[in-house]
TrEMBL record:
<protein>
    <recommendedName>
        <fullName>Pyrrolidone-carboxylate peptidase</fullName>
        <ecNumber>3.4.19.3</ecNumber>
    </recommendedName>
</protein>
<dbReference type="InterPro" id="IPR033693">
    <property type="entry name" value="PGPEP1_Glu_AS"/>
</dbReference>
<keyword id="KW-0788">Thiol protease</keyword>
<comment type="subunit">
    <text>Homotetramer.</text>
</comment>
<feature type="active site">
    <location>
        <position position="80"/>
    </location>
</feature>
<feature type="active site">
    <location>
        <position position="167"/>
    </location>
</feature>
<comment type="function">
    <text>Removes 5-oxoproline from various penultimate amino acid residues except L-proline.</text>
</comment>
<dbReference type="Pfam" id="PF01470">
    <property type="entry name" value="Peptidase_C15"/>
</dbReference>
<dbReference type="InterPro" id="IPR016125">
    <property type="entry name" value="Peptidase_C15-like"/>
</dbReference>
<keyword id="KW-0963">Cytoplasm</keyword>
<dbReference type="InterPro" id="IPR000816">
    <property type="entry name" value="Peptidase_C15"/>
</dbReference>
<comment type="similarity">
    <text>Belongs to the peptidase C15 family.</text>
</comment>
<dbReference type="InterPro" id="IPR036440">
    <property type="entry name" value="Peptidase_C15-like_sf"/>
</dbReference>
<keyword id="KW-0378">Hydrolase</keyword>
<feature type="active site">
    <location>
        <position position="143"/>
    </location>
</feature>
<keyword id="KW-0645">Protease</keyword>
<dbReference type="InterPro" id="IPR033694">
    <property type="entry name" value="PGPEP1_Cys_AS"/>
</dbReference>
């Protein structure tokens, strides 16, 4: 059986829950064609998150790896196009670390593009009635760090495997605490992630969307 590894994050920045984790939990051990999904939570900590991710990749030898995180304030499910080789933390991570302008990987290239069919994923979500868009930045906090580290590790060690990153918005119960912030129901997020994973699994190359489904 082939493996799709999906990760999400623990809560951070004072929030009690992280919707990325709540939304992927129900997908544990579910199947897509001839593959099964393995979900794991990563700590919201620079470096430690990557050490754990690398161990999971070595253990599962997945053909597809998708990491998911929260982007509070965004209204859509956003499929990330690119990860950059920089850590520039606006707040401390869960271990109190706050790197400013350090590389994710010393001597690594400036950036890596997602190897997922990002437009096809966005398109499928929009067809399913779920707001989604391509995002041109995964930020400079732990999510970008994990996306960069993931793509670097795959490029070095498992070049046949594909990987990328998806951000989800706040849940409605979080929007109550964060004034004027958009939100999405947990049910929609889980459907969105399952759909996105399915499209990524079934499409090795992307579609061309005229007009650009981007932010
Ligand atoms: N979101 C943060 C890190 C963990 C998470 O879920 C980010 O966007 O960097």
């Amino acid at each position: 059986m082939k493996t799709i590894l999906v990760t999400a994050f623990e809560p951070f920045g004072g929030d009690a829950i992280n919707p990325s984790w709540e939304a992927i939990k129900p997908l544990q051990n579910s199947r897509i064609a001839d593959a099964h999904i393995k979900v794991h939570q990563l700590p919201c900590i620079f470096d430690t998150s990557l050490t754990q991710l690398y161990t999971l990749i070595d253990d599962y030898q997945p053909e597809l790896v998708i990491s998911v995180g929260l982007a509070g304030g965004r209204q859509d499910i956003t499929v990330e196009r690119v990860a950059i080789n920089i850590n520039d933390a606006r707040i401390a991570d869960n271990a109190g670390k706050q790197p400013i302008d350090t590389p994710v990987i010393a001597e690594g290239p400036a950036a890596y593009f997602s190897s997922l069919p990002i437009k096809a994923m966005v398109n499928a979500l929009n067809i399913a009635g779920i707001p989604a868009a391509v995002s041109q930045t995964a930020g400079t906090f732990v999510c970008n760090h994990v996306m960069y580290g993931l793509l670097h590790y795959l490029a070095q060690k498992y070049p046949a495997a594909r990987g990328g990153f998806i951000h989800v918005p706040y849940l409605p119960e979080q929007a109550v605490e964060h004034e004027n912030m958009p939100s999405m129901s947990l049910e929609s997020m889980t459907i969105a992630l399952r759909t996105a994973i399915e499209v990524a699994w079934n499409n090795k190359s992307d579609i061309v969307v005229t007009g650009g489904a981007t932010h």
